[in-house]
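Revision sheet: structure tokens.
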Amino acid sequence: MVKRFERLKEIQRLDPERDFLQIYRFTVSYEFPWDITRALELALFRTYAVPSIGRLLAETAELTERSQKRYDDTALLLDTVVEHGFDSGAGRTAVRRINRMHRSYDISNDDMRYVLCTFVVTPKRWLDVYGWRRLSGHELRAFAAYYRTLGAHMGIQDVPQTYEDFERVLDSYEDEHFGWDEGARAVSDATLDLMGSWYPRPLAPVVRKAGLALLDESLLRAFRYERPSPVARGLTRGALRLRARAVRLLPPRSAPHYARQNPEVRGYPDGYDVARLGTFPTPGERGCPFPRRRPADAPTE
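Predicted:
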């Protein structure tokens, strides 16, 4: 049996610049699959709080009328790259699908870069508070290298180089851009409703309160949510910290767990074709949540 910290030792023997995919895969599919999923769900709310992003998401109706499908497709496309790598057939197909959706619309490079930053920074901050251990410096370097690579495949310009760079870009962008938008609030409400739908109906209000309890003050202000009570915050955050202590005592995972195995991914019980995931907007129809004009030198993938 692999001891609890043996995989971390294996990670430390790898080169985070050269072996970033292997390190990232170990971290997200062996060490923290549940936590990374929760952290990336929380990252969704951060993107909604930028009005230019949240407003467009509301206009497309992808997350208000087809929220389960949109959640599934996003998780599966991103996870395909993690599981199979950037150079695999499946990974290239997933990146191509992501780019073809984005290419249909006009979104600023800054918004695209900000969304990329949330995938790097939010998991680290979640694990600092709720993880059974914190990410090592090796893992943070690998996270930065992984998302630099993804950003390059997506044609995003001026992608941060280090974790600290990703964090600075995220914090400054939120300080400058977080704000109220009615459509963004609708998307946020729809996402909370989706999360509640994964549990028995009587628990849906509890799940919504727990979700709100995890939002920081900047998000609560941007969406104009009533501040959760200290009791709700304490119970939610205390439960997550207790879980972390329990996980630390459990035997480590012996097989990888990918997003396609998550019970929250419900739309493809009979399997899926990566090439058919996502939206296929017709000309003039809004269907992509993160549109942007493709630069002339952007990759074709």
